[in-house]
Structure formats: C-alpha cells, structure tokens
Amino acid sequence: MTAQRWILTVEYDGAPFAGWQRQEGAVPTVQGALEAAVRAFCGQTAAVHGAGRTDAGVHAAGQVAHVDLARPCAPEEVIGALNAHLRPAPVAVLAAAPAPPDFHARFTRNMKTYRYRILARPAPPALDAGRVWHLRGPLDVGAMRAAAGVLVGHHDFTSFRAAGCQGSGPVRTLDALEVAADGAEVVLTARARSFLHNQVRIIVGTLAKVGRGVWSAGDVARILAARDRTQAGPTAPPQGLTLMEVDYD
Amino acid sequence: MTAQRWILTVEYDGAPFAGWQRQEGAVPTVQGALEAAVRAFCGQTAAVHGAGRTDAGVHAAGQVAHVDLARPCAPEEVIGALNAHLRPAPVAVLAAAPAPPDFHARFTRNMKTYRYRILARPAPPALDAGRVWHLRGPLDVGAMRAAAGVLVGHHDFTSFRAAGCQGSGPVRTLDALEVAADGAEVVLTARARSFLHNQVRIIVGTLAKVGRGVWSAGDVARILAARDRTQAGPTAPPQGLTLMEVDYD
Description:
Two copies of one chain form a homodimer. Chain A is of the alpha+beta class. The first copy, chain A, starts with a strand and ends with a strand. The relative contact order of chain A is 0.18.
C-alpha cells in the first residue's frame, strides 16, 4: 500500500517556538510539534514540509504543509487526531485534504501573503500584546504607501535581505505591498511567490522610518538601488508578522 | 486647590483579573491595578470608577473610567505615567481628558457596546486562544440573527439574568443585537444603556443553541416570555466577551 500525501492548513502562535524549522535537540519548533503529532497519531516518522519556513516568533493563520501518511484515514480524522496530539501547543490544523503525490508545499508554484501589524499609539498593547509591533508616535500612512510603491515589482532586494540569507540570489518579484490604516493600527500586506530571509521585516522597519518622517519614498528608491543591507532600516520584530495564506496555482 | 476629574479610556486583557471591581485582599482586579497606578503616580488614594463592572475574564477595548487627581498635569503625562506604573499588567490607558466635576463614568447617561466572538470550526484556536468561545460545529448565522431580533427592544429579561444579579429590576432596553459572520467566526454585537448581570453571555449561550439547530426564534420568544433563567441557554464563557466602547450623550 502506498502512503497518501496530505495537504494541511496550519495556524500557530509563533511566540513559544524557535521558528518553523525542525532543529537538533529539544528546541521547540512548529515542524517538530507537527511531526511529533503525526508520530503519536500514526506511529510513523514522517517529515512535514512547510510552504514557508517562518522565523522564531512569527505567526501563521494559513501556513500550508504536506505529509505522507501510511495509514488510510478520513480528513476529519486527520484534523481531529493531529489537533488532539498537538495540545496544549498553540498549533492547530485547520484543514486536511488528500493531495497528488507530486504536490510539494514549498516547491509547487505558489503565492504567499504575509501581514504585518504595527500599533501606533502612545499606550502599549494590552489586548494585542504579542501580535503587533508597538510604536509610540503616529505614522504617515500616505507616505508609507507611496514608499511601498517603490518596492513593488521585480528588483534586486539585497538591501532588504538578512546577512545570513541562503536564498538563491537577491532578485525577487514583490507582487503587492499594501499599507492600510485601521484605527491606531497600520497593517502592511505583502504578496510574493518567494521572499528573501527577513525581507518583509526589513521592509517594515524601513517603511516605519518613512512613516515617522525620517525618510521619503525617494530615500527608499535610493536604498533599493544601493543593494546594501546597511542602508535600509532595522528588522522589525517578529511578533507583528503573520503568514496569512499560501495559494497554489 | 480643587482636584481635577479625569475621564480615562482603558483597554485590558481580562484573563489575569477577577473582574473590574476592587475586592478585599490580594485579589487582582482591573480597578485595583488602576488605583495602584494612581497611587504610584500621584501619591494619593483615589477611587477609579468604571462605566461597566466587567466580570472575571472579560476584556475591554474601550472601558471608560473617571478619577479625581489632586496633582495638576497634562493628558500625555496622565497616560504615560499610568501606563508606566501599570506595567507589566495587561491594562493600558489609551486616552485621558479633563472632565467636568459632575461627570460620572457609570451614572452619566451612556450607551455601552459589547462584542462576543464565537469561533465555530473543528480546530481549536491557536492565534485567538483566550479571545473566543470555541464551538466545533458550524452555526446557522441566519437563524441566530432571526432569534436575536426577538430580543431587541424593551423587555423583562429575567430569563437572561444571572441568579445573583443586583441590578434594579429585570427590565432593560436592548438597543441592538447584531450577528455577523467573519470567516469561521460568528461575532455578536450588543448595545444598551444598561445590561443585567451576565445578560450578554446568557443571550450568547442561548443563540448558540439556535445556531446549532436545537432552538428556533420561536423558542427564544417563549424563553423570553417565561421570565425564568432555567429556560434559557448556558452562560457563555467570559473570554469571548469584550466591552468595546462607552458613548456618553
């Protein structure tokens, strides 16, 4: 009997994890938690492959992963059993569906949507602590939106790439980068087929300086053209970032 | 010199608190946390009066309170100092404004808006744990909306009142009760000048049974007319409830 490939939609709170990717030793990771749940459910050791390897502290509302299960079962059984074995870790399998054997969560062509939430007000977050980046001053959302427009498209994003990034080259296509105001929140939404390491968080750290009036859209164009990480803003903290969805072609 | 009355807008995560209202001993309450912050800031013991005395575990995004401060200060100073002294408790003062001496957060005529979030899906909440009531099955939002319509208006709400409620009589006017679907969430919004103890949570517990198909709008009309708490549904858990805003005339 051949194993069935399953595609899983996964939600998690990134706070207690050292990121998505499995690590040596007892380091808690989302992939490790899912693989332990698969082991408890099916008695088999199977790799759970994620679409995006989110960093430590980054959340997901719609991460997608695949896994091959030898045991035949119904989708509701996969969801129920994995969630039961995941408890009390803040990881939930929202959906499970059979997938063709050539489907790969990471390598099958897809579009990822990330959201970054900034809370811009004097008071710290009480209800959204751990879900937003808190900045005390007001932000000029119009200026941030104009500067975001500079970054959309096919560019060499060396200036917006973590020093240790192991991606294949610095060129990526950023399909969308929206900036919206929602009360005291500024919400940034980024869409691309592939992101460089820390790309969204460095973009957010840079646009926050635009929002504060330190830089303009012209400065962001100059930073992009410089192809130099030291020219861009700081890497925004992980807790504001959530992988919202992964859409496959 | 006369003390200045201040009106405060307050956000809090209800989880670590035994509710709004100050209690004897070392019980953590939101009112107690605010009064301790006032003491640390001004060196004075002053009562902080809230618009609504939220129960243990209930959150607020826009609770309103008033307090008399002997020390003259600017609004930004009140906000900054109280938030500094509140740390690390999940309570934040969002706004502070001078108020006339006859303003009273609770007794000045006002309209309160509460929101209740139900997460209706098989998977437990990972990102919104502590913010929603999790129900596994799907809910019929149309049926819930029809039943909600039965409760809007001026009624004797004895069936939707906690046994220990100390409010003045069981008659209240429920100005609005909206039921909206938002993905896997069902969000109920209730507006009234005054609520009975647990009124929103008993209404939600009752409408959840309508959503599951156990009861109809006609059953809810019968329950309302019965004036008997034992006829209504269970009291929905506190973590789904948030006091969203208090509007003064």
